[in-house]
Structures are given as structure tokens and as C-alpha cells.
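Priority: medium. Attachment 1 of 2:
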């Protein structure tokens, strides 16, 4: 743990239009931080970024980060790198695409250094661990089985080495399974919520996997705490620490929406190499930065349902 928490007055956030990014911008604003939100040019989700005089939008493609420090200008204390190409579907196995993400991440580190940042925080994934029945432990070796997870793991190691070379603190936050306003339409939670709100029948698999969901606002608070006081070079799992059958979560969504649509289990097969147990060890996140989840699944889901209802 750092002896004195970092005072963050200005922060850079790439990928601010997704669920984590939207929540992180909101979290930073609550702490009085000025935010530079780095968005893809012409992003259709730009309106999801919180509107505030302290938020400055800078349009820059992910392959243009070599110019990012010039576009942003000035000085900042923290750089949060959430942007990534090919996060779902077949693109996760597009190895050339995933390889390019490593280069973009290194260019983000170089931009952070030129902007005078003291800490670089990268967004990792549970996919870095690979298939395992054991609890996901950030201290143990990873064996990813897809291009996305392998690239994330490589980006973690390479950005850490470059940060140390450039004199910056490095943190890596592996998001286990998250939901919240701003999430993509392809996720299980979004598909179930949207289908039920439209009064449709939602076909699901068996849903007997054991899962740990964390709400986006809790994940964003963890990102902030890690930047402020995380141990240099550490990897942190971002999760709630609560493990339940996936079916319980899906049925919980149905109960909160109530009386609209229907849910069918065992109507779809598992994905190839389906993870059956996502149990996360969050001990170092709790000890190093004092993280405790503040939202139950139900509380976070009520906000998520309200947001998705406003978008239909």
C-alpha cells in the first residue's frame, strides 16, 4: 500500500462510454476530479458520458494514442485505460486484432508519462486466468485459452514493465463479471432485461454456472481506490465476493421486472469452453485499498433496469 494516498486532481479515461467508463467518470466527479474522456471519433454512445463542466471530451481513435498527449495537453495524475478492441464474439479470437491492443496499451502508457501521470491503471479480464475450477487468485499463474485473454495478460505485463521504466506506478484491475447502465446489448444481463421489458420470451442456457457479479458503480469505486492507494505492480480482481448460481441472478431480474415476458432455461447450449465457476479472491483489494461492495445485486439491478427501460 502506498503510504500517502495519491491526490488526484485531473484524470484521463479511455473507453468512457462503456458501463465501467461511465461509472468511473461519475466516481471521479464525486471526488472533485477533472476528467478528460477519450472517446472514439463519432462514437454513437457519446451521450452516455456524464454531462458536467469538469468533463472534457477528446476524440481520439484507439490507434491514435501516439498523439494523445498532444491532444489532451496539460498535466494529470492518473490514467485509466479501459479502451479495447474485440471484447466479445468472434473478435475475441481475432489474434491480429488482439495483438494490436497490446500496442495501443503501450502507447497509452507513453501518453500517460508525457502527461506527467503518477499512476497508470489498466482494465483486465477474468479471461486472463483461463478455465479453472479454483477461485481466481491474482497471485497465481494464468493460462488463458483465447486471444482476448492472452492479449490482456500480455498487456498487463508489458504496460507494467514500461510504467516502471518510465517511473510510474502500475495497477491492473481484472473485471470478473460486471453489469450496470451503459453496458452493451450483447451481455446476458442486457439481453434478459431488454427481452423481458419488451414482453418477450428470453431463451437461456441451463444457467447453473456459479457466478460473481459486481455492479458498475462498485467497480468504478474500486478503480478509483486502486489509483489512489493501490500497491505498485499489483493485480486486483474486481468482484463482489458473492458467489451464486447464474440462474438465481436471472430469476432475480425477472422478479424485479415482474409480470412481463418469460424466461426459458435449458433452451440454449453452453458456449465452447464455457466458464462454470467465476469465484474471485478479492482479499488484496480489500486489504490494500479498503474496498467493500456497497450495492447488492438487487440494488444495482434496479438502477440498470431503469436505465435500459429509458433506452427502449
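Attachment 2 of 2:
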Amino acid at each position: 500500500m502506498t503510504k500517502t494516498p495519491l491526490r488526484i486532481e485531473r484524470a484521463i479515461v479511455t473507453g468512457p462510454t462503456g458501463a465501467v467508463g461511465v461509472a468511473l467518470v461519475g466516481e471521479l466527479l464525486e471526488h472533485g476530479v477533472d476528467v478528460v474522456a477519450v472517446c472514439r471519433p463519432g462514437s454513437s454512445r457519446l451521450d452516455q458520458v456524464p454531462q458536467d463542466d469538469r468533463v472534457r471530451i477528446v476524440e481520439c481513435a484507439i490507434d491514435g494514442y501516439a498523439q494523445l498527449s498532444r491532444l489532451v495537453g496539460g498535466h494529470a495524475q492518473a490514467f485509466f485505460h479501459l479502451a479495447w478492441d474485440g471484447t466479445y464474439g468472434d473478435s475475441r479470437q481475432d489474434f491480429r486484432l488482439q495483438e494490436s491492443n497490446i500496442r495501443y496499451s503501450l502507447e497509452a502508457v507513453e501518453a500517460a508519462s508525457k502527461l506527467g501521470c503518477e499512476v497508470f491503471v489498466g482494465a483486465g479480464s477474468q479471461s486472463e486466468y483461463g478455465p479453472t475450477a479454483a477461485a481466481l487468485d491474482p497471485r497465481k499463474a494464468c493460462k488463458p485459452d483465447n486471444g482476448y485473454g492472452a492479449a490482456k495478460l500480455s498487456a498487463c505485463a508489458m504496460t507494467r514493465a514500461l510504467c516502471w521504466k518510465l517511473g510510474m506506478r502500475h495497477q491492473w484491475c481484472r473485471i470478473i463479471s460486471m453489469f450496470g447502465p451503459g453496458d452493451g446489448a450483447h451481455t446476458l444481463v442486457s439481453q434478459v432485461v431488454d427481452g423481458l421489458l419488451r414482453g418477450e420470451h428470453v431463451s437461456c442456457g441451463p444457467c447453473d454456472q456459479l457466478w460473481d457479479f459486481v455492479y458498475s458503480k462498485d467497480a468504478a469505486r474500486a478503480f478509483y481506490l486502486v489509483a489512489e492507494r493501490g500497491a505498485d505492480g499489483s493485480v486486483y480482481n474486481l468482484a463482489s465476493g458473492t458467489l451464486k448460481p447464474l440462474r438465481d441472478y436471472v430469476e432475480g431480474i425477472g422478479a424485479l421486472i415482474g409480470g412481463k415476458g418469460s424466461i426459458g432455461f435449458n433452451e440454449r447450449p453452453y458456449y465452447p469452453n464455457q466458464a462454470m465457476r467465476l469465484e474471485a479472491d478479492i482479499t488484496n483489494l480489500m486489504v490494500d485499498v479498503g474496498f467493500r461492495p456497497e450495492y447488492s445485486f438487487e440494488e444495482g439491478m434496479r438502477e440498470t433496469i431503469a436505465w435500459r427501460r429509458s433506452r427502449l
